[in-house]
Design a protein that fits this description.
By secondary structure, the protein is of the alpha/beta class. The protein folds into two domains: 119 residues, Response regulator (Rossmann fold, 3-Layer(aba) Sandwich); 66 residues, Arc Repressor Mutant, subunit A, CATH 1.10.10. 46% of the residues lie in helices and 17% in strands. It is built from nine helices and nine strands. The strands form three sheets. Strands 2-1-3-6-7 form a five-stranded parallel sheet, sandwiched between helices. Strand 6, helix 4 and strand 7 form a beta-alpha-beta unit. The longest helix has 15 residues. The chain starts with a strand and ends in an 8-residue tail after the last helix. 32% of the residues are buried.
Length: 207
């Protein structure tokens, strides 16, 4: 019997996930908690095989950070990241943290149970693309990966020089990327741009 921990702070989603897993043969939900950091503590006390981990959890606790910490100490525990947030960086961070699979939440719990079964059978299941959202005059899939990286850094409060240093490019290149973003989106300031990107959950500083 596989023992499953669910980390999810939405009452509705938590209930749906619990019901879906409970209907699977050979799977048992051992607990449902709201805070990702609590999951790190629970792993030290309770044997488990799988964690279904939300990213934005209670108390602004990051499921991605906790998942990475858990994988370092308990590499045999499999983790499926589950989120409805389209932040472009989440997939990459989940991979870097060692998470086996990634699921964008939707009403089709059959999709989740399929991912659970395949993950426990040794597969790694990740979506090919992130959800597309509207950003000013365009959709997010019209921004390049480097432009998205610049937006993420701006949302984190980084200066152009700091962004240049962290992306290993010149400050002029950062300015060129920003100018291109303005041209595409129709925005005229970083405040407008960052506000729109945070509102649409394209970037979520702190996660």
């Amino acid at each position: 019997m596989y023992k499953v921990l669910i980390v999810e702070d939405s009452v509705f989603v938590k209930s749906a996930l619990t019901s879906a897993v409970s209907l699977m043969s050979d799977y048992e939900v051992i607990d449902c908690i709201e805070n990702a950091e609590t999951a790190e503590i629970l792993c030290l006390r309770v044997p488990m095989d799988l964690i279904i981990m939300d990213i934005c959890t209670e108390g602004d606790s990051s499921g991605l950070k906790s998942a990475a910490n858990i994988k370092k100490l308990h590499p045999n525990i499999k983790i499926i990241i589950a989120t409805s947030m389209p932040d472009y960086s989440f997939i990459e961070k989940a991979r870097e943290g060692g998470c086996e699979s990634f699921w964008y939440k939707n009403e089709n719990t059959d999709e989740l149970t399929d991912i659970i079964e395949r993950t426990m059978n040794g597969e790694s299941i990740y979506p090919e693309t992130t959800p597309v959202v509207k950003i000013g005059d365009i959709t997010s899939d019209q921004l390049t990966p480097r432009e998205l990286a610049v937006i993420k850094k701006l949302a984190e409060g980084k200066s152009y020089q700091e962004i240049a240093d962290e992306l290993f490019v010149s400050i002029d290149t950062v300015r060129q990327h920003t100018k291109s973003i303005y041209s595409k989106t129709g925005f005229h300031s970083n405040v407008q741009l960052i506000s729109a990107c945070i509102m649409s959950k394209l970037v979520l500083p702190g996660y």
